[in-house]
Amino acid sequence: MAYLVGVLIAVVVILASIALHEVGHMVPAKRFGVRVSQYMVGFGPTIWSKTKGETEYGLKWIPLGGYVRLVGMFPTKEAVDAKEPTTWAGRAAADAREMSAEEIRPGEDGRAFYRLSVPKKLVVMFGGPFMNLLLAFVLMAIVLVGIGLPVTTTTVGAVGGCVLAGNEEECAEGAPVGPAAAAGMLPGDTIVSWGGQPISTWDDAWRAIRASSGSVEVLVQRDGRPVTLTVDVAQTERPAVDDDGLLVTDASGDVVMTLVGYAGIEPQRVMERQPLWSVPVAVGDMTVQTASIVVVLPQRVWDVAARTFSGQDRGSETVLSVVGVSRIVGETAAIQDERVTLARQAAMLLSILAALNISLFVFNMIPLPPLDGGHIAAALWEGVRKRVSRWRGVERTRPADSARLVPVGYVMFVLLIVMGVVMIWADIVNPARLF
Fold first, then answer.
1. Cβ–Cβ under 8 Å, residues 36 and 55
2. Alpha helices in 192-294 (DSSP H)
3. 278 HSE (CA, 13 A, CB side)
4. Directed axis angle between helix 406-429 and helix 297-310, to 10°?
5. 183 to 190, 215, 220, 263: CA distances (angstroms)
6. Which residues are catalytic?
7. 81-127: per-residue pLDDT in tens?
8. Of 61, 62, 67, 126, whose CB neighbour count within 10 A is largest?
9. If we measure between CA atoms, which residue out of 226, 229, 216 comes closest to residue 262?
């Protein structure tokens, strides 16, 4: 049931993200006088629609995007003095100009999108991605400032009943009793010092435990009073780490194992609220990381397809479709672990949905049609041409012929459909396992 609730939450947020994205385009377009004939969330057959004023608002069956129809998106043939087409690309551009011109009502040429100034075009086209970025800010503000991040403390959260070897997660039959449990350490004890070394953070305790062996004197605070315990620290194999806490690997990429001290305790984790300035820092980091993935997106999609065809596990470092995101959100909502509090679960859910909106922002800023970034690039090119004309002392009144980018948009549309189908298929038959 919790899984289904999580999936439902994901679907609602995805639809809200799409709807707000299109609102970001529609509101400034209407404010600048452009006639918006349609506002649709989804693609395909229409589920519901209602016309209010001069705009038809509706919901369609396939929730993989949305659109607003801005009248006069491309300049007319007369506005750019276009020549008769002689190639496929030229005919595609001419058809786009003709279809765009047919939407312009008599006497409303001044309300066409192509008539807007360059700054206004930029505001309209950037408005959609900006709404996704803004939503990501809001979600991360709730996570960081409202809920907080899980922080380990020096208070003991759990005491293991045995010595776990290697990557074991459960006690094997006949395993020796855990050192901390044998010494009488209890959940709720706060570690003050370990082997005479003062402990102020869990990282201090973790490093002190790994470096110790034999009998170690440990001072803890229990119910407001100091208690001294003697812990016979065991030695067990654990992954080796460097000074920065990163895993050490050998030449073949395998994790190096080493003998370290083992006490059998886990820290208590609490949700610690972060300052407001941490929100833009977190969103900025997420944006940079997402952009680094989008740059090599075709390669990532190819890797997912290859792994799925060969039956290999995708791992956690993978790209996801909206189906994959919904599954991950569902799995997050269905986590049943006493160590994962409801607040932490909510923070995880909201972080995933914030990352989704960051992805929508970055992806839509790719400077290729039919994405918003393609229209932004066309508007910037128009602005550059007008500025150069002014420098040359010539007043340029014609808009840039953005319809010439339509053939590129067709190719990109096909590629996006193919990648989308591959990713959805992979997320169904070979889903990513993040937990």
1. yes
2. 202-211, 278-294
3. 14
4. 40
5. 15, 10, 12, 10
6. 22
7. 778 888 888 888 888 888 888 888 888 888 999 999 999 999 999 99
8. 126
9. 216
